[in-house]
Automatic annotation (TrEMBL):
The lineage of its organism: Eukaryota, Metazoa, Ecdysozoa, Arthropoda, Hexapoda. Residues 198-301 form the Fe2OG dioxygenase domain. It holds the Pfam family 2OG-FeII_Oxy_3. The keyword Transmembrane helix applies. Keywords: Dioxygenase, Iron, Membrane, Metal-binding, Oxidoreductase, Transmembrane, Transmembrane helix. One of its GO terms (cellular component) is membrane. It comes from Aedes albopictus (Asian tiger mosquito). Coiled coil: none annotated. Residues 1-32 are annotated as: Disordered. GO terms for molecular function: dioxygenase activity; iron ion binding; L-ascorbic acid binding; oxidoreductase activity, acting on paired donors, with incorporation or reduction of molecular oxygen. PROSITE patterns: FE2OG_OXY. Its cofactor is L-ascorbate. This is Fe2OG dioxygenase domain-containing protein. The chain crosses the membrane at residues 38-57.
Length: 323
């Protein structure tokens, strides 16, 4: 084969001299490819953001006490908040071994609950808030009435509700709860003093009319009431039976974005107690149906803020005397 023939075959691209078919390629679409890449990156970024959100901003739920349980005692220890500890350290005999909270269904008996619930219902016949959150304070006489407060001791007909059984039961239950606080936080009972406000509450699902009706906002008792050092509640009705909603909720923080809602389901005769500092941020869920009755009984370590038991003088018009 001559050299010229070889050169010719190379030019045509085949060994037999036949012309080679030219390869065809699809034209590139740079705009479409770039758009696909952008969408892929966006999906990746959104996926990462979702993962970060659910691993960083998390709210867990924990049931501390359910209505079905009957608890001898359940406790949770917490670190005292700095401001709370700095203040309470001034009061010898009143410094808790640990800050925290407790629940017990064995402090107050069923018969005592019946007497106190009867007293509450009788008192609230003379006044209720129009916005769903009513209070009755036997120490000051304050009773919710529409959007205001009245003095129940100024109502002559109201005197008939305060029997000796009511008065003695109220005092006896207060003493038992005071002892429970002292035992659970390992403090001297005589270093604890009843303080204001201590009151019955009646919560319903009626629309709030004033700020006093908005009981569901998170708060710290020590910041709301400076005299508080220990807060207790005695529940007079049952969650899930007498009312729905209305659970007591502690809000525990773990870092900046993680928190745990710790629930107490109210139960007749159940007592809960806790240190009143920022370690126990809390609120009450809005009641969705029914009526929730409870008593808030508060204690101070500062004798200057002490409040005596109410001594009902049924022959006078000017209200209770303090013992």
């Amino acid at each position: 084969m001559s050299e010229s023939s070889v050169r010719q075959r190379k030019k045509t691209g085949t060994s037999d001299g036949k012309p080679r078919k030219a390869k065809t390629t699809q034209p590139s679409l740079p705009g479409v490819n770039q758009q696909n890449k952008m969408w892929a990156r966006l999906v990746l970024i959104v996926g990462i953001a979702v993962v970060v959100y659910f691993t960083t901003f998390r709210t867990r739920e924990k049931k501390f006490a359910t209505q079905r349980e009957t608890l001898e005692l359940r406790t949770q220890k917490l670190d005292c908040s700095k401001l709370y500890f700095e203040e309470i350290a001034k009061y010898a005999g009143c410094i808790p071994a640990d800050c925290g909270r407790f629940v017990s269904d064995k402090v107050v008996g069923p018969a005592e609950v019946d007497v106190l619930l009867n007293l509450a219902k009788s008192g609230f016949r003379f006044g209720r808030s129009s916005g769903g959150a009513s209070i009755l304070d036997l120490h000051s006489g304050a009773l919710s009435k529409d959007t205001q407060f009245i003095n129940i001791y100024k109502i002559p007909e109201a005197k008939a509700i305060f029997s000796a059984e009511h008065i003695n039961t109220y005092k006896h239950v207060k003493d038992k709860i005071q002892l429970a606080v002292a035992e659970n936080f390992k403090i001297n009972k005589d270093a604890l003093f009843l303080t204001h406000p201590t009151f019955f509450s009646r919560l319903t699902n009626e629309t709030a009319k004033t700020i006093h009706d908005e009981y569901w906002h998170p708060h710290v008792d020590k910041e709301t009431y400076n005299s508080f050092h220990y807060t207790t509640l005695l529940y007079l009705t049952d969650f899930g039976k007498d009312f729905t909603g209305g659970r007591f909720v502690f809000i525990d923080s773990a870092g900046k974005h993680n928190k745990t809602n710790v629930y107490i389901e109210p139960k007749r005769g159940r007592v809960s107690g806790f240190t009143s500092g920022a370690e126990n941020l809390h609120h009450v869920e809005q009641v969705s149906a029914g009526v929730r009755y409870a008593i808030t009984i508060s204690f101070t370590c500062n004798q200057e803020h002490a409040m005596g038991d109410p001594k009902f003088s049924l022959d006078e018009d000017d209200g209770p005397e303090l013992m």
